[in-house]
Amino acid sequence: MTVIVLSGPIGAGKSSLTGILSKYLGTKPFYESVDDNPVLPLFYADPKKYAFLLQVYFLNTRFHSIKDALTEDNNVLDRSIYEDALFFQMNADIGRATSEEVDTYYELLHNMMNELERMPKKNPDLLVHINVSYDTMIKRIKKRGRPYEQLSYDSTLEDYYKRLLRYYKPWYENYDYSPKMEIDGDKLDFMANPADRQVVLNQITDKLKEMGKLPEDWKKPTDIQIEA
Ligand SMILES: Nc1ncnc2c1ncn2[C@@H]1O[C@H](COP(=O)(O)OP(=O)(O)OP(=O)(O)O)[C@@H](O)[C@H]1O
Ligand SMILES: Nc1nc(=O)c2ncn([C@H]3C[C@H](O)[C@@H](CO)O3)c2[nH]1
Q: 225 alpha carbon to ligand 2 midpoint, in Å?
């Protein structure tokens, strides 16, 4: 059983790489709840009012996915539960949560993480972190086109996104729930460039091989279909 989680800031390419990697490895993808998330547009319209609700919503959906992923064989998860606190802490630091909400959130997170301790598998096998610069992040957010994430929607988003990148650096450095590796999301266009895509896939499968975690029956596919 091999469980891989992807991490990285907004628009880094986690969902895209989750799709590519799960096809390449022949495993099941688990996606973060975004287009079906009723709280996300509310949060971007009024962050102070909805930061706590959004966090509880994400924590709940992530907990569902992680429970399924850690009991089934061979999965790839788009964003880890370990990034949840990063987002909430950042929102709390900029005054979008009361101290009661902060305390309640951390208690709930702690409680849920304790539940994971009882799972047959507690942690992922590998964290794949996609590094991107601010410019790349904004380019991808524009390309994807969710209206409420655009800088034109809210002038404070530039600061929010830059701050998020600053929070990610120490988060990745301190992450120690599993082995980890970084992908250069600025240089490697794994969506449009097949050679770059193969570089990324080789980096990940080399790491899995080195760890003895490449599924035994895995055969390198000759071609995989990518949805743009
Ligand atoms: N390496 C890449 N090169 C070029 N385009 C990319 C790359 N990765 C992602 N994209 C494009 O950038 C956009 C955002 O990618 P994606 O939705 O996968 O990001 P994400 O990390 O899952 O974002 P979020 O955190 O918001 O869910 C998409 O339009 C995707 O096609
Ligand atoms: N506030 C907040 N907390 C989270 O845990 C969290 N996880 C993701 N997101 C936002 C970022 C993208 O807009 C969009 C897709 O990743 O959802 C979050 N926002």
A: 27
Q: Is the pLDDT of residue 213 over 80?
A: yes
176 in a domain, yes or no?
Answer: yes
Q: What is the mean pLDDT of residues 18-24?
A: 94
Digit-coded pLDDT (tens) for 145-173: 999 999 999 999 999 999 999 999 999 99
Query: Does residue 204 form part of some domain?
Result: yes
CATH of the domain at 45: 3.40.50.300
159 is catalytic: no
Range 138-143 average pLDDT:
96
Q: Which value does ipTM take for this structure?
A: 0.96
Shortest-distance atom of ligand 2 to CA 86 = 5
Of residues 103, 104, 123, the one with CA closest to residue 113: 123
Q: Give the per-residue pLDDT at 80.
A: 87
Q: Where are the alpha helices (DSSP H) in 26-156?
A: 40-45, 47-71, 84-93, 99-117, 134-144
Residue with tokens 């950042």: 90
Give nearest CA residue, ligand 1 atom 15. Answer: 13
Residue 220 forms part of a structural domain: no
Domain that includes residue 108, residue range: 3-211
Query: Measuring from each residue's beta carbon to the nearest atom of ligand 2, which residues come in under 6 Å?
Result: 10, 32, 34, 40, 43, 54-55, 58, 84, 87, 91, 149
Is residue 222 one of the residues assigned to a domain?
no
The count of structural domains within the chain is 1
